[in-house]
Amino acid sequence: MDDSSYYVPAAAMALAFAVKAPSLLRSRRDPLLRAVCALLLLASLSFLFAAPPTIAEVNRRTGIANVSAPVVYSLLTAFSAACLVLIINWRGGPPEVTRRTSRRWIAGYGLVIVALNTLFAVGDAPLERLRDFDTHYATTPFVREMIVLYLASLTVAGLAMYVMCWRWALQVQGWLRAGLLIIALGFLFNIPYAATKLIAVVARWNGGNLDDLSTYAAPVLASVGALVSAVGFCVPLACQRIGDSWSTWSTYRRLGPLWHELRSASGHGDRAVRISWWSPAELQVTQRESDIHDGMLGLYPYFDSGVRADAYAAAVAAGSDAVQAQAEADAAMVTAAVRARAADPEGRIISSATTDAPYASPEGPRDLVRISAALRHSAVVAAARWQAATSSESDFHERTR
Fold first, then answer.
1. Which DSSP helix (H) or strand (E) runs through 202?
2. Residues 174-178: contacts with CB within 8 Å, 24+ apart?
3. I want to staple 179 with a disulfide (CB 3.0 to 4.6 A). Which of 236, 290, 327, 389 is the partner?
4. What distance in Å separates the CA atoms of residue 363 and residue 322, rounded to the nearest whole number?
5. Nearest Cα to 381, choosing from 337, 322, 321?
6. For residues 355 and 300, is the Cβ–Cβ distance under 8 A?
7. What does the DSSP 8-state code read for residue 358?
8. Is 246 left (phi over 0), alpha (psi -120 to 50) or beta?
9. Is the confidence at residue 290, as pLDDT, over 70?
10. Looking at residue 21, what DSSP letter applies?
């Protein structure tokens, strides 16, 4: 692996941490956010300090040969703990249980970090090794125990992550399940990574030389596992955001028929100030719903409960369920009111109206999306529209006579 294989992901993780850091400052007590930020920061530091040029620089600045080894091992161990804590908090559950489980993993891996540094301190590793430290010092007392402990801790973390993600994936659906399975696969790479390292170390114990497994094969496995795990963490978040955006824009589009039907009543088509087309989807939907409610308010004096009752009965007779029949009845009343309003250009009915209450009904708020769909697809609404168009003029004269 060349140096860019370390520094590019380190920079990417640092950038992601910088994006998340302001949220952490605002919500310091959020355990999930803390776990995410800790994971991003430790991932960035792990890649940074594992790069051979950084290893050499740290050794040079401290004046201690191979001091980078316990530093990198400690960072990777802390990163493993951060991943476990993130999954625990992400999965949720009773807060007390979540906190207790998180603290146990943190305490356990904290002890591992202390042990790693203690073993290095009492061991003897005077000759600097930038890429093959594990195999070169595989037979050195205390240092070999440090190496084995580090590999064992990564293996335990990988297995624990795999089991937790797999069990959780069996309980959920959709993109979250896909993400969890990908994360589980990524951490499963910890096992072949540790295995190749350990095989090379054991070979040294027995007088053999399989150093290439540790020096060249193991880092590739670690990088692939880290990449796969990162994709797994991103998939649920990114796909959920895309799905939410798609759903919001779909709602905006489905409200179109009702919005267009009410344009003349609300006057929103003539507004001088409109939100820009590049505004967030949520704001676009809010604006469209506001226009619809304004139109409903303007049409209130023209709403005819008789039209609604007849349309409801016709929809039920045509096979619609209660909810759909209600939407079709509302749509029929709206389309009839629009035509009644058009037949009253001077607004005489509005002037004589005794109430300015907003559009409501005993059944509660209406499903605007269903009403909008009924305007386009319902035969009952089409019949009400035709009847209103042919009779609105005569009805108007009768009502104002």
1. helix 190-205
2. 175/235, 175/236, 175/239, 175/240, 175/243, 176/236, 176/240, 178/235, 178/236, 178/239
3. 236
4. 11
5. 337
6. yes
7. P
8. alpha
9. yes
10. H
Among the listed residues 12, 22, 19, 98, the one whose alpha carbon sits nearest the alpha carbon of residue 48? 12
Contact between 310 and 276 (Cβ < 8 Å): no
The rounded distance, in Å, linking the Cα atoms of 180 and 83 is: 12
Q: pLDDT category, 393, cuts 50, 70, 90?
A: low
Mean pLDDT to the nearest integer, 166-170: 89
User: How many Cβ atoms from other residues are within 10 Å of residue 314's Cβ?
Assistant: 20
Residue 110: the pLDDT is 95
Cβ(44)–Cβ(17) below 8 Å? yes
Q: How far is CA 312 from the centre of its chain?
A: 41
Containing 313, the helix (H) or strand (E) segment is: helix 305-317
DSSP symbol at 356: -
Task: Tell me how far apart the 2 most distant CA atoms of the chain are, in Å.
Answer: 111
Eight-state DSSP code of residue 123: S
pLDDT grade for 108, boundaries at 50, 70 and 90? very high
Q: Report the chain's mean pLDDT, rounded to a whole number.
A: 84
Query: 231 with 182: CB under 8 angstroms?
Result: yes
3-state DSSP assignment of residue 261: helix
Read off the tokens for 67. Answer: 């001091």
Could you read off the pLDDT of 204-247 as tens digits, one per residue?
A: 999 999 989 988 898 888 888 888 888 888 788 778 778 778 88
